[in-house]
Amino acid sequence: MNHTNTNFQHRHAAHCESGVAASLMSHHGANLSEAMAFGLSSALSFAYLPFIKLTGFPLIAYRMPPKSILKGVSKPFQTRFRFETFRNPDDGLHRLDELLAQGKVVGLQTSVFWLPYFPEDMRFHFNAHNLLVFGKEGDDYLISDPVTELPQRCASADLQRARFAKGVLAPKGLLYYPESIGRTEVTAEAIKKAIKKTARIMLGPIPIIGVRGIHMLANKVAKLDISEHSLNYAGHIVRMQEEIGTGGAGFRFLYAAFLQEAAQITGIAELAVLSERMNEIGDGWREFALKAARMIKSREAFSPVSLADMLRLQAERETDFFRALKSAIV
Amino acid sequence: MDVSNVPQEGNCTLGNHRKALYAKDADGKMVIVPSRGSEADETVTMQAVDRMNALAADARTRALAGQTSPLEYWMYARRMDVVLLSQISGIWQWRIRRHFQPKHFLCLSPRLLASYADALGLPLAQLSTLP
Lengths: 330, 131
Known about the structure:
The structure holds two protein chains of two kinds. Chain A is α+β, with helices and mostly antiparallel strands. In chain A, 48% of the residues lie in helices and 17% in strands. Chain A folds into two domains: 2-30 and 79-181, Cathepsin B, Chain A, CATH 3.90.70; 188-328, Four Helix Bundle (Hemerythrin (Met), subunit A) (Up-down Bundle). In chain A, helix 9 runs antiparallel to helix 10 (270-296). Chain A is globular, with a radius of gyration of 20 Å. By secondary structure, chain B is mainly alpha-helical. In chain B, 50% of the residues lie in helices and 9% in strands. Chain B has helices spanning 39-64, 70-77, 82-89, 93-99, 102-106, 110-120; strands spanning 19-24, 30-35. A two-stranded antiparallel ribbon of chain B has the order 1-2. In chain B, helix 1 (39-64) runs antiparallel to helix 2. The longest helix of chain B has 26 residues, at 39-64. The interface between A and B is large, with 54 and 45 residues.
């Protein structure tokens, strides 16, 4: 079977879900960049979730849960996404082929571990990766994976395995596509609403979410001893921040890009200034990553307290920042 | 981050890929820049990979000495731990630990072996062998 959607344009993106949302909406004629998809869905966040363990370490997220970006762009663009999951893997395979035969570009949720084109060292068991399929040639699916520079190919057996991987956040073969798109330009109102929501989440009262979550993580780091396990813990924080498709510094640079676009569309000049500030906060996160990496490489003495201090400083900078962001939106 | 500061240090864990980072260009505009990665990123990824590889190597040594079953080796070789293998296979953690004992592993039913092989993405015959 050969079906290729020749109109489709692959785009390289920092993050899988915002990249998929931007590519999919753009393919259907809407004007949406990755950064705008990310900001418009209020995806920036911070969460320290000690009760969810990844290879023995707590989940540290710099964004909202999976699927929130797709849902977040639906309303401002008056779009209805159709989501389908499958109990029987064969049904999922046939449905994907059927949609491709209709000329659709289809979004999929997959595991990272079973995708053969991923670099070996990056293949971990993470089930909430997003990618687009835009065609099939013989047994190979043509894949636009937002985190790779060029389109990829993947044999159907491998893709099937990745789509029906089990465990936490199991994709159950999830596929999605927009059914109708009511609007092609984003409004200033939608942007303001999204910014308010982000400020509310970051400054919220729950101790593990937002800036309070950063403080909580800092307290936890301050209590670490100087064992091998603690070094792995520090490395784990940095991996969550830098390596899992974040566009650098736990999405902070991506959000700075969004604020810049938002300043133009809303005409609020203050947002451009705040974009600059967010960029600097991102640099602060990078410094934290570099410091931790130097300690892991034993280039400087491992000092959990100084890492915790850096985290506290970041929390304070973000507190000031989101207060300013809140008052910039009228 | 400015475009000139985007790390291009050649992170070996990326293979031939480049990852997209956002940075400020000369006009002050935030743009997407393909990055070859930084040493810091490489350090933390390799730390995690090395940790899994060390666990697998250790399990292999013990399996060769008859102290554990090949199941434990394959679990780590597939970058899983007991919690994850339990979530994926649907087999309780204490049962998995019990199946690490060679004498229990040898008596496993074909059905259980098949569940493990499926969860680990291995041909059934390979599960009882060591590389």
